[in-house]
Amino acid sequence: MVNDEERFRDGDFVLLVPLFKTKKEIRFVIKLKSGQVFHSKFGVIQHDGIIGKYYGSVISSHLNYNFIALPAKLHEIVQNYKDFKFITQIIYPRDWATICVFADIKKGDKIIEIGTGTGAFLSYLVRTVGSSGFVYSYEKDVERAKIAKRNLDELGIREGYVIKVRDVIKEGVDERNVDVVFIDLPEPWLVIKKAWCSLRPGGRIVVYIPTFNQLEKTVMELMRHGFIDIKVKEGFLRNIQVKPYAIRPELKGYYFSAYIVFARKSFVIPLSYVEDLVKHAYLGEKIEYK
Amino acid sequence: MVNDEERFRDGDFVLLVPLFKTKKEIRFVIKLKSGQVFHSKFGVIQHDGIIGKYYGSVISSHLNYNFIALPAKLHEIVQNYKDFKFITQIIYPRDWATICVFADIKKGDKIIEIGTGTGAFLSYLVRTVGSSGFVYSYEKDVERAKIAKRNLDELGIREGYVIKVRDVIKEGVDERNVDVVFIDLPEPWLVIKKAWCSLRPGGRIVVYIPTFNQLEKTVMELMRHGFIDIKVKEGFLRNIQVKPYAIRPELKGYYFSAYIVFARKSFVIPLSYVEDLVKHAYLGEKIEYK
Amino acid sequence: MVNDEERFRDGDFVLLVPLFKTKKEIRFVIKLKSGQVFHSKFGVIQHDGIIGKYYGSVISSHLNYNFIALPAKLHEIVQNYKDFKFITQIIYPRDWATICVFADIKKGDKIIEIGTGTGAFLSYLVRTVGSSGFVYSYEKDVERAKIAKRNLDELGIREGYVIKVRDVIKEGVDERNVDVVFIDLPEPWLVIKKAWCSLRPGGRIVVYIPTFNQLEKTVMELMRHGFIDIKVKEGFLRNIQVKPYAIRPELKGYYFSAYIVFARKSFVIPLSYVEDLVKHAYLGEKIEYK
Amino acid sequence: MVNDEERFRDGDFVLLVPLFKTKKEIRFVIKLKSGQVFHSKFGVIQHDGIIGKYYGSVISSHLNYNFIALPAKLHEIVQNYKDFKFITQIIYPRDWATICVFADIKKGDKIIEIGTGTGAFLSYLVRTVGSSGFVYSYEKDVERAKIAKRNLDELGIREGYVIKVRDVIKEGVDERNVDVVFIDLPEPWLVIKKAWCSLRPGGRIVVYIPTFNQLEKTVMELMRHGFIDIKVKEGFLRNIQVKPYAIRPELKGYYFSAYIVFARKSFVIPLSYVEDLVKHAYLGEKIEYK
Lengths: 290, 290, 290, 290
Description:
15 strands; elongated; homotetramer
């Protein structure tokens, strides 16, 4: 039943899962390159000792530590592969999913990403929209853009996207009529209007917001600029301890990542939004006075 | 900039977002069919009054209630379209995402789903694996299978999957060497071995578990049958109130859906798993005695 | 073993727990008064039929619905007794506890509460500080103050506190050298300075904050006014479904109540706070400019 | 305004809050003893340099590191004072509160604690029930009991409780007609019956349960033994980052402590519980067969 498609080949990403006990969870991700060698404190592993082996094989280091070798998942590569360089806080994989489901991101979508950063989410977006879609990613910092490009190259993702070096706040974007605009900037409210212009009617906007402070301004800008159906979600994932005699959530872990704002491009401002904005202005003034 | 692709056509799913205030959030999803009429307590809307309109247009009922019409997202259709019939608790959209990211479900994957249910997640899976992938979905109840089929027909999803009426616990599955097995059954531990056999080496398994009770048995069966890298996640999403003068999480909402178990097919049982199983057996015995 | 102290007496609060199945959870709280009658859709119960009965007795309505009668807990009385009138959103019982533990509220403490509201938390505070402590509660609205007073009368709490009708923002408080100041106002930042003056050295302040918007201003005011060890906590409680064959968290419930801010009175402003305030001012300016 | 009651005295617990920046949060708790010296990597502090100082004073180490000295809160002492020895996982302060509010633990209550452990929660219970209440705490391990006793001595808590060295599972408890039984054992279901016998009618039981596995058995035992109004709660507290320009929840922290089970002593078993137990038995059998 096992055929040649089930064997590791040069260029594949491999996840190594230790068969021995470790104090903290250890997962190595390596990219196979014939002739190369993987070093860790558990000893040396020849890449050529993995190439040609079936998925799920046991691989031993020269110190006789055993690992299971598996095809690595995208989120494992992004989080564990040494040559995928983190230059910014990435959009967490636990949020990739939430964004894609609730913004209905799918095959064929044309997407603008404002704030390339490390390129982790960009890689997921490119894979999701497929060959019939496209991702236009904007990054104002030249160095970051280079590293993000190199990161995607490392992943073997060479098509379906472009990274443009530009400060969108000052210079805007080129595309019109796109399906989705995704914003991950410290001051997202400054590009909401530009996002509106570049979206097709009914188009979807998503803003990734790490602090409370940014949320109010962003929501107000969306309300003012003809976005409707504004929704904000905050997700968290809890890991459960896998001990059959002591199953319980882990005691500690990530319990926050960001607020994720979703909305749709429209041509009107609902009365309720106007009222909310007026109420905000009034309350603001009242507060200033005191 | 707006072209003909931005207009509603016969057969499209439309989301109607009210422009007036409502006590509870209201979202209607309708499927356009020339000559038909949509009734609600806010009055009557002719489908022909929407067909041909641009996305994001304002639509009025005969009682002069105004709505924005938008192309509906998949999760909105599944949750709001009247002819998508719920016969079981569905896998929640907030979990679709988590499953697909952490099981790395993507274009081209061959997937077995055990427990079709209503077919909601099936529709998302079919869309995700695309035309180069395939989903084999098993359902033991004939009536459910029929309704699920009709649900996917309603969504316009006619290819890329098959629903087989069969009790997998008794009769197993036909496919071998698939990439992913997804299980949503009350007694998932009874099909773990069958899932192992049908997966390709390194293949991914996901089990969706709504109660504590089922979790221990499932994890133990995975440990016993050569699955490794077992991880369990529990996710929840909190909605944030969108009032610019009073931004805060909603007070009430969904705070649980299910435990989601992820693992990979391997050919060995790690020593740590054996120890855990032994410890469980010992503790179990000790407890029984008292 | 059961003695006369275990029997219901006139004036006691009784919790009635139905012994029959109900679709939604039902808990009645009544205050026993000889000669009175309790009406519900499950029939009539004579108070005199409960007075003199042992705690835990079965009580039947005239329609033969059975209930267990138990001494009611404080939080049950506050949330279920009809004559405890809600005029504002109360501090939730799930937060009473968090506040008291992390502000170390205990027997003997002198406490100022700014914003009496309904008086629910006041009742818990009075009970917690006991006869050697005291709670000075300020409420600017005369009507509210009256109702809160009546609520505490209903609970039988007649000593250990005073409700003063006053707008603290304008007129300040009378007490000095108190142990704790608790603030539950829409604009808490306006009384931070007054709170500082009324606290003893090292005294504890707690601010209850329902929205994001209020949090930033409050934290900044605390930093500016010589409060240190500032901590903010957000708690939530999840209810677990009690079905031995299907134990799992409830699907829906309260998942937010408020942000709770804790700090201590000091005479200095730590350098790190100054830096944070400067950084905030700078970022604010930068943002305004654009 | 500051009087002699506001000065540190021999025997007081002091919380030292650094006025300088530290990478991780640092809080020292020391117990003042004239003539002693406190050492840390930030230098030496003479206890006599604190004794007599006002609360909230600045204290400098010989290396010129400055701290604010504050009266320490109970939960800070338990978690940070070196001579309070942890021998078991303690009941977390975040749970002390939940237990006391929802079990209505208050002045005057007589309480049995089964499983003294480190004695942290015992100290909070003793303080809460006050001089008119009492806590009977059972611990089967002699060494643990000694350390717990020493811990309470260290806190200066010498009255209002007793620690009895006994295996309650085998030998039961002495008291009858108590108000509350609190259980923190690995196999709590083995003492449910004994707890029922020792409670007064309507009495409250609380069981602290760290894993899923223990929950089902415990709930079933409560149902079988005449406990009603069974409720299970799981709490969690999220810390918010206190930076006025970047307010957001901390990214990582504790997101689980335990399941807390609450119930009341009754003399009947509600029909719904019987049905649940039968359903469980049936499902259990059905599952065993397959």
